[in-house]
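Supplementary notes for students who missed Thursday's class. We covered one full example, reproduced here. Read the sequence, then the structure, then the short commentary at the end.
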Amino acid sequence: MSNVVVVAEVVAGRVAKPTLELLTLARRLGEPVAVVFGPGADVASTLGQFGAASVVEITDPTLNEFLVAPKAEALAQVVAAKEPVAVLLTSTLDNKEIAGRLAVKLDAGLITDAVDVTADGTLQSVFAGNWTVAAQATRGIPIVTVKANSCAPEEAPAAGAVEALAVEISDAARGARIASSQEKAASGRPELTEAAIVVSGGRGTGGDFSAVEALADELHAAVGASRAAVDAGWYPHTYQVGQTGKTVSPQLYIAAGISGAIQHRAGMQTSKAVVAVNKDEEAPIFEMVDLGIVGDLHKVLPAVTEGIQKLR
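Structure (token representation):
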């Protein structure tokens, strides 16, 4: 069976959910080979549980000292060794750059922001999520970045055998060095880009996100914010949803006090279901919702939270 390289995202020693989705999609194309930038033994059992026949670990310290260029070079060497029919990565900012660099190195086709991958082709989200089109790589092997929450992870136990691969990183790739980094404080909530439910607050919160956070916690959801809320200093930039923030595609997106400017919609309009709460009945967000509530979020959200608590 043909190999399919899957680049694994490991955060704080845990395999990220989008990686499990990639393994599920990869099994449609062939036999998944997971690539871990770092030690692979600790996560091999999880990767194997979801179909990884083998786990390639790359422990070169250069990968963490510099930006994305060394990872692209390392992946090119993995492709040379494994000869896969495709390479799949989660659609993050870093991974899109890695995928682009890898495509150039391999003279291969690149597809970003895919929402489905099959042996017959790929569905791709384009124009800030306004359209979904069929796409195929016509040159070399397809290198595909896939949006989180594009499919449900499905277990399919495989060997998950760990093998180390020594890579050579060129001096040219040792460009921008990472001078320092800081771990994001743990909130106890899901990661924004991989959460099944997202509750976002905007200008209508007035800077008070307590109702947004309370509902998110009750739903085991992630918290997001609009650019207006972030620019006002009400919430950190890492939680911004939109064209200049993060792109999310959850099963349910709740927009509280967000008008729905095109820049925000670009970051969430591939959500499976959208609920909006806004005092302005003319707010653009209501043009795209499955359920719209005209009202004060500081009254509506606590009522919803209380209702869920009673049901439980």
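Commentary. The CA atoms of residues 275 and 291 lie 5 Å apart. Residues 297-311 form the longest helix (15 residues). If anything here is unclear, bring it to office hours.
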